[in-house]
Amino acid sequence: MMHRTPKLRTLTLSVGSAALFALYLPVASADATEAAPLHAASQPPGPDTTVHITESYARLVARDAWFWAWPMVNIYNRRLAFERAPEPGLFGGVVPLAPVNRLSMLSDYIEPGQRWVACPNQDTVYGASILALDVSPAVVQVPDFGKRLGVYQFADIRTDNFARLGTMYGTKPGFYLVVGPKWNGTVPKDIAGVFRATSSTAFVVPRIFQEDTPEDRAAIQTLIRDVDVYPLAEYDGKMKRHDWRTLPMFPRPANAGAGEARWVRPEQFFDQLPAVLTDAPPLPGEEARYAQVLAVIAAARREPALKQAMIDEAQKADKEVVDPLLQFRNWGVPLPNYWRTVDNGARFGTDYFMRTAVARSNILVNAPNETRYYYQDLDASGARLDGAGAYTVTFAKGQLPPTRGFWSLTVYDEHHFFVPSALNRYSLGTRNKSMQYGSDGSLTLYLQPDSPGADKESNWLPVPKGAPFSLMLRNYWPDAGETAGAWTPPAIVKAQ
């Protein structure tokens, strides 16, 4: 059979069709270079802030902004609270509070009655300082930790870390300087390091391990006396020392509730947001998001009804989208036995969901290489943990959390705060020296409202009687293998 080679057809174009066809041909490179700036110059810098917008659109933007900016406004309002402090002291007698660019330090574990920060630990002695770097750079004093684990968290207004300082980093004792994003001054002599914050507002939280013994409570005092934060103008190269046991106490508001203090309020949110966004310049790709919400806020200033609609939408979003994130089971990286964890803690960037989830449930977490967090609301069958029952968790021999620091298992009520206990015990772990191990080398902890018996009481972690509760397992300075996900906690087993 003969194969016929097809003939190429000649395409004939009229003048008009040739011109039309030319519209689809590549433009010469010289023309492209010339056209690009013209195209860019024709684009507006952002939304037109003078146009009338619909209520439904304003609600859409308001709902979205409430979610992704919630953690930033949370930190902003904590800064406002610190600005009102007359001197370093203890708010309500339990929470460290100080004027901005200064530190207040506890001298023991945090008291169970505090409600300023959800999911506090009972492993470390805390300090707290909010930096106003638009006012002044701040000097941070670091003591010699020796063999004791200590870590300072430096979080920007987004709750992302911007510095590394602590035992796991081999940090040397001395003076460190924290400066704002645009600071361009002279670094004084004998400053060991300079950290540049990514926002003008920043949180500094020292955490220093303490064993649960009278001897260690006394021993830690000579170390924490050298922990301090103060404005650069007060730096003189000499360690400033404090006996943190002598702090004044500030009264707690009488209307404080059972849950965390309310730091983000719909009726204030859109008035505060422009200042917050100025403090936290947009990350790459966020420019349009910032411009959009600021344009809608500008429109709401001209139309009170529009602003009220935005407030109403924020109230709905708070209840429908943000509040469910208090529950650990609603977010996080799923692990065996219903545990959850977070892989990008304090490094959220534009992961708005995880940033807001962590901020709502346990704000100001350390980075994963500093502290690994495991969250639990459910037992091995998937049922909600509840103090109407009794539970055990057993670590097989050699299967305790792999740590270079220490670990703990903490119980919280449904609001993520400590549960009143006759033992005054809220966690068990490395700091507890009286726990009993099985003959096979295993460790069983008893989670129940009433004592499991005198012979097991050293391993008893009290839970709220007849009420839901949650658990958090912390591993401070985890082994590299755990950071990579090679270890997960055992199941929480309900007693039959």
Automatic annotation (TrEMBL):
Keywords: Signal. It comes from the Bacteria. PANTHER family: BLL3101 PROTEIN. Residues 1-32 form the signal peptide. It comes from Caballeronia grimmiae. Residues 371-479 form the DUF1214 domain. The keyword Magnesium does not apply. Residues 100-231 form the DUF1254 domain. The keyword Signal applies. This is DUF1254 domain-containing protein.
